[in-house]
Design a protein that fits this description.
Number of domains: 1
Helix content: under 10%
CATH topology: 3-methyladenine DNA Glycosylase, Chain A
Order of helices and strands: EEEEEHHEEEE
Strand content: 25-35%
CATH superfamily: Methylpurine-DNA glycosylase (MPG)
Shape: globular
Distance between the termini: 12 Å
Number of helices: 2
CATH class: Alpha Beta
Number of strands: 9
Length: about 180
Amino acid sequence: MSLVRVIGRTTLIGRIVEVEAYGGQNDPASHAYRGITPRNRPMFGEPGHAYIYFTYGNHYCLNVTTRRAGVAGAVLIRAIEPVKGLNVMKRFRPGVPEGQLSNGPGKLTKALAIDRSLNEADLTRSGPLYIGRARSRQLPFTIRRSPRIGITLGIERLWRFYVESNQYVSRAASGNRRTYR
DNA sequence: TCGAAGATTCTA
DNA sequence: AGAATCTTCGAA
């Protein structure tokens, strides 16, 4: 799947190569673990919408809500492989080598100029930010899974999924594999 | 109201 | 390995 960012006449596209799943009160690593708060409210909303939060005083992270309204669930987009608009992404990430443009959740939001203004945006339809099927046919690839990164609880769950050997995955790890086409 | 922790990134 | 940086939320 592709993440598409439209800014005026400019369209930026990235192939999603790494994600993590987050649940609700059954998932101690989730923002929604202790119930609804002002920040995590989008996680309890309609599926297919953006949940964007600000963290560590510097970075925005983008999630897609996944469960029906009233049930918390989201997928964190952790990395994308730039497909279109590379030059613009570089402008948003001055001085950064190409391979590190979008290989992390905070990096990709900066490369695509994503911030709180897009919180709760509908990602299922054309707009400033949405997710679509890849335009061109993909070669077969292998998805691996591993524990989620940067959390202290819930590490026993293999809820991180990433494209094997892709340069833009934030970091490698071992896990089971399954091939998709 | 206060303070500790945080789904990170960058530098040394 | 440690700093930067500031919002968020639970506890008091």
